[in-house]
Write a structure and sequence with these properties.
Largest sheet: 4 strands, mixed
CATH topology: Glutaredoxin
Structural class: alpha+beta
Helix content: 40-55%
CATH architecture: 3-Layer(aba) Sandwich
Number of strands: 4
Length: 112
C-alpha cells in the first residue's frame, strides 16, 4: 500500500516566512490602478502578511474613482486602502502602520 504525502506549499512556507494568514480576520479593500507601483507595493505587503483582500481596479472608471474618493475623504490618489471599512490611506500609510507595529492588530480584528 502506497502512502501519498500531500504538501501545500503555503503550509510549508508560511511558518518559514513568518506569515500567519489564520490570524487575519479583517475585511481589507484596495482601490488600485493596474500599473501603479505604489499599488503593487501595498499588495505585496498584504500578500506577505497572508491577507486575502478585495481589489477594485479603477483604471479609467471615473464612477469607481468617484466612489473611492467619497469613501477616502476626497483623496483621489491610488492606492486607497480600507480595513474593516476604516480608511487607512495609501501605500505609505500602510507601511507606516506596519513599521509602528499597528498593522497586525488591525488585521487581526474581525469585521463587524
Amino acid at each position: 500500500m502506497k502512502t501519498l504525502l500531500k504538501i501545500n506549499m503555503l503550509d510549508f512556507l508560511n511558518p518559514v516566512l513568518n506569515r500567519h494568514p489564520e490570524r487575519v480576520k479583517a475585511n481589507v479593500e484596495l482601490y488600485t490602478w493596474q500599473t501603479c507601483p505604489y499599488c503593487i507595493r501595498a499588495k505585496i505587503l498584504l500578500w506577505w502578511k497572508g491577507v486575502n483582500f478585495t481589489e477594485y481596479k479603477i483604471d479609467g472608471d471615473e464612477a469607481a474613482r468617484a466612489k473611492m474618493a467619497e469613501r477616502a475623504n476626497g483623496r483621489r490618489s491610488v492606492p486607497q486602502i480600507f480595513i474593516n471599512n476604516q480608511h487607512i490611506g495609501g501605500c505609505d500609510d500602510l507601511y507606516q502602520l506596519d513599521t509602528q507595529s499597528q498593522l497586525d492588530p488591525l488585521l487581526a480584528q474581525a469585521a463587524i
